[in-house]
Amino acid sequence: MKNTRHLGVIFFPAYDWAISPTHPEREERLLYTQDQLREEGVFDLPNITEYKPEIATYADIERIHFCFPGPREVSTESHLVAAGGAIKAARLVMEKEVDRAFALVRPPGHHAMKVVHGNRGFCNINNEAVLIEFIREHYGNKRIAIVDTDCHHGDGTQDIYWHDPNILFISLHQDGRTLYPGTGFSEELGGPTARGRTINIPLPPNTSDEGFLYVIDNLVQPIIDDFKPDLIINSAGQDNHYSDPITNMNFSAQGYARLNEKLNPDIAVLEGGYSIQGALPYVNLGIVLAMAGLDYSQVREPDYNPESLRQSPQITEYIEKLCALTMKNYLKPPPLNVKPNQYDTRSKTVYYDTDGINDQQLEQIMVCTSCSGVRHLTSKTHRNSSCMGIEIPIDACQRCRDEGYRLLDEGRRSFKGTTIKFINRREQEYLTVNDFELTPMGRYYF
Amino acid sequence: MLLGIDVGGTHTDAVIIDREGVAATAKVKTDHNNLITSLDAVLEKILSSGPKRPISKINLSTTLTTNAIVEKELEEVGVLAVSGPGLAVNYFNRDLGEHFHLLEGSIDHRGNLRLALNDVAAREAVADCQHKQLKVFAVVSKFSPRNPEIEQTLAELVSAESDFTTIGHRISGRLNFPRRLATAYYNAAVWRRYNTFADAVSLSIKKYKINAPLNILKADGGTIDFKNSRKNPIQTILSGPAASVMGIIALSSITEDAIILDIGGTTTDIAIFANGAPLLEKEGVSFGDRATSVRAIGTHSIGIGGDSAITINPDGKITVGPQRMGSPMALSGPQPTLIDACNVKRLCNLGNIDKSFSGLKDLAEQNQLTTEKLAGEALDMALKTIQFEAIKLLDTINQRPVYTVEEVVHGEKISPQRLYVMGGPAAILAPLLGQTFDLATEIPDNYAVANAIGAALTRTTMEIELFADTGKKTMLIPNLDIERKINSSYSLNEAQNDGISEMVNYLKENNHPEIENGDVSVVEAESFNMVDDYSVGSKTIRVSCQIRPGLEKDYLEGVK
């Protein structure tokens, strides 16, 4: 046996939840994975223990998301259980009950952004972000690296941590020119206060084990070594698999296990992966064994043929160049044209594919020289006409803290929308302001 | 009249029960090296003293297979295993004897044959076993409950050499290859020894002119008929503790969530009841670090009993157990024990109390304590440890993973309402345990022969797993060896009905004419659509049925 570690697995397949009967995100997505893990007797191994998820509270969600009109309306019990599975993983690791934890839960979360109006990319609540804020709430402001190995760009997680210099977000995914959500390009490097803390590695279709592991060895690992995180979290999407029906990559179960062994994350959280029979049982088994430090050499898909999956020399060359460029971007990100201690504005349109919502957002960040900066945004959809979000970051300086309250006050007096969400991570105050006209005490109440 | 016999580690107990209650009891010392003489002796004793009406049923619990495994009295087994991709071999081939052969071949989770059995290698393995004159075999493939074909081929290959072959899917329809493998191995390894014993049991029963069906106790608190036990001897392991638990049910009226404590000399066994029924081990019982698929009542044993030694470690911490150095000092033992502490606290009056006092006084003085204080703290420590372990066990059970939103969010938790205490020191410790746990406490009468009463009254149990695939149009019940064609409209409802009726048919054909459909409960019933190319195609259906441990109702009133 190799260097074994105690692994906690929070297995939650949500057998009674689906987006719709034929949607890829449906009841039996993890059924065959469970069959495989059971038949292998994985949970009888002395260093692997199965745990039940907790149930996340609305407070856990409102710590990180601006949910409009509120968390109750944009989530279901299954989202609370999946996020609760991620929280359980965090608790197990932080309390040192286990060395590593894998939240093998659904529904997934990495497309859920800072603002949530509904479901996009099969996601409502960002499980990793709920997990990270749970850790920062209870165990201090840690430096955390998220490595997103889902085939789709982790645009939700990127959006949430775009301005946070203590969270390093690295996403490896199929090039956005060829796949949903169409973002995640090399030049997306984080906001003015967290420049270089968002790293995107858009890989060409048909990238195989060789390409993924090259990126890990030559780019991800050196960046992590430089960033020196307290914790590493893997957003463990499994749709880079060669058999996945909605993507075009050539990654294998062996590759996923190797990647996990190299990356050595403290916590992994399942994301996508829709080849539920041909890939997931083997990929999950491989990840579980690798995280536990056990021999995974015999884990392979019945139809695995490494020769037929080999990537072309052109792909190899492209990836080598991409890695060199990205490393340069990380070490010396091209500067933004911003003025210190003033607001920088970005506007964007967010489309909720599952729920058909179109969200027009205007976001302002204080380009603060002493903290991550107060964040102020407005969001407008046909559903929730106009909403506002204000966030005082966990590391806020006094000026940005006071500015957050000033914005809140101003919003209460003059905002023409329906709801204001206010997050003060520094002093842990969370407010919802709505129904401006209806209250007798003035124009608002809590 | 029912005859219940428990051939235990120390004593062999027998009871005869009629509709009025316990009609006769007998107890003899167990001859560890010759269990049949113990059986004969207890039969002789109870039949000569008891009423002369005919026996209608015999239930026998024996430690034979448990002893064989613990003492490694195992026949060499030819083990032929087919794992396919997955866990490396060194995680599942430990403790399976000297003749383990891993063969090439693979079946996937859907039950598709992905790689045919390597026929040449299989024949070579069989030839090697033949050369080593092996006569019993275990053949097990991964995912055999989904598709038994590789196991069937292997069973056929060894048939000419084999006196007895255990086939994996006949052991259990549940998925767990390493457990199935270990269980199949042990079943083959104890087969001959068990059958020699069974032959002797048959002769004994003939000798005493008993003409009644014979059943053998299992670890899950139920019975298996004698004929079937000859093919499934592994099912008879660890039936003693299960018989005791069933005895407690017979002697009390447990209807709620409860904690059962069986306090012996060296250990306290904890069992948890939910709604009056004992909880089973999640997957099966383990010996040491080897897990099996044998279903068993979950009991947790901790090293505190009446004879547990009281010690004080160098930094002044008082401990009770887990060592037992001998009897209490009140009974001329070498070291103060929990019972001596009870004597000092005037909770009981056992043996020579002065010796308890002087023993504890010596230990107390060496540690600058008063005798009273030491006795009090030792007792407190014992009670708190028992409580701590029971709560921990309960938490583990309440934290068992579940797989639907409904169960996570709205699932019920077990919250014990009552404490049942039995065993030698029960009367002394029960009131204190009641206070510690803050629960109403009960000591069942007659608990000294609870094991034999449990043995006499318990009924048969069984579990089956049904697996249907409407795409392949097949339905399987692995442990009954049923494999049938179904049509593509086969429903979850039909599957549940088939599960129940196949189980009842099987039991009726195997000496249990009394079993009716109503005795069977459906434990799990799930149907999943298998979507191919974004359209709903076929269904995978999984049904699990069982007959839960239960007691002969007609005789229960009398016993209580």
Comma- or semicolon-separated keywords:
heterodimer, A: 446 residues, alpha/beta, Arginase, Chain A, 2 domains, eight-stranded parallel sheet, six-stranded mixed sheet, 12 helices, disordered C terminus, B: 560 residues, Rossmann fold, Nucleotidyltransferase, domain 5, 27 strands, 35% helix, 25% strand
Describe it.
The complex is a heterodimer of chains A (446) and B (560). Chain A has 446 residues and is an alpha/beta fold. Helices cover 31% and strands 21% of the residues of chain A. Chain A is built from twelve helices and 16 strands. Chain A has an eight-stranded parallel β-sheet, with helices on both faces. Chain A has a six-stranded mixed β-sheet with strand order 11-12-13-14-15-16, covered by helices on one side. In chain A, strands 3-5 form a two-stranded parallel ribbon. By secondary structure, chain B is of the alpha/beta class. Chain B is built from 16 helices and 27 strands. In chain B, helix 1 (35-49) packs across helix 6 (177-207) and helix 9 (338-344) crosses helix 10 (353-366). The interface between A and B is large, with 52 and 47 residues.
